[in-house]
Amino acid sequence: MPKDDTTLPRKTDLTVHDEIPKMAVLQGQRDAIEVSLAKFGLGQLEPGLFNLGVQVKPGTASFDIIQDSRQAFLSDYSRLSQYHIVFLPCSGSTGTTCDDLTSGNSTVQQNIQKFVAAGGKLYVTDYSYDYVRQSFPGYLDWANETSALGSACLPGSYDANATVLDQGMKAWLAASGVTSFQVKQSWTVVDNVNPVKTTDLDGKPTTVTPKVWVQGAVPNYGDKPTTVSFPRACGRVMFSTYHTESGGATVSSTLLPQEAALMYVLLEVGVCVEPTIPQ
Fold it and tell me: Which of 8, 46, 172, 203 gives the lowest tally of CB atoms within 10 Å of its CB?
């Protein structure tokens, strides 16, 4: 088949009928999800400062990297609502201690809930887990959590042998040559996924249980979810326990299996029964 028929567009160009979601990355301190997006073809990579690691080459990204604080961005719904997908990667920590209190702000919680209910997609990783727990309580339980913000953050990371539970993802990864892999650099443990009574798109009562896409054999905990998602109205919330880009990227590096899994989930949960138009 022609390459153009099997390749995602790098940017929105309506003159040739190419369109991609509007995406915002609130940069994390330790999970460079913008590097993963660049690997997908949505930007170009260049060596980092002093040739340490990599970074997205300025002016090449087909997504926005938000430089403002999370508090400033998430408190302003007029800005948040401009996007289809918002990434909240691992952040808000000093070393191995969580100290990001923004997720406990009631305005931030209300804006996140409104964004997702309106059709937005929220993707959160490891130490940022409280943005899911505080805004959408009950869907997930984390090991070691208490009522305190950051209580489920682990003092160290773990790698886990992965089992793909979604058959479509499993077949897609196998077609790419990935039949076994580890999810690397996880900093939280999802203990359980729970059924939650809510309403559907028509406002009728329904029960939603988060979908587990990938689980891992977590040391000392057993098999636990590592990649999950759940709907809220037309929107979706996604969470992974691990760093999407585990920190070893180079300018020429290819997708890690866990990055390929992210791409699959984003494509799957992007489907909606009605159009979502950013303000």
Answer: 203
- CA pair distance 224, 214, nearest whole angstrom: 9
Using a cut of 0.85, tell me whether the model's pTM lies above it. Answer: yes
Question: Which candidate, 255, 274, 251, 172, places its Cα nearest to that of 214?
Answer: 172
* Angstrom distance (rounded) from CA 200 to CA 278: 21
H/E run at residue 176? none
Task: Check if CATH label 3.30.70.330 holds for domain 3-269.
Answer: no
- Token pair, residue 125, equals 């990783």
Taking Cα atoms as reference points, which of 61, 198, 36, 59 lies closest to residue 116? 198
Environment class of 34 (CB within 10 Å of its CB; exposed 0-12, middle 13-18, buried 19+):
buried
Task: State mean pLDDT over 10-35.
Answer: 78
Q: What is the mean pLDDT of the chain?
A: 87
The predicted-structure confidence for 161-214, as pLDDT tens digits, reads as follows: 999 999 999 999 998 889 999 999 899 999 999 999 998 888 889 999 999 999
Please give the structure tokens belonging to residue 228. 């999950």
- If 0-12 CB within 10 Å is exposed, 13-18 middle and 19+ buried, where does residue 38 land? buried
Q: How far lies 39's CA from each of 28, 70, 205, in Å? A: 17, 25, 41
User: What is the C-alpha to C-alpha distance for residues 133 and 135, in angstroms, rounded to an integer?
Assistant: 6
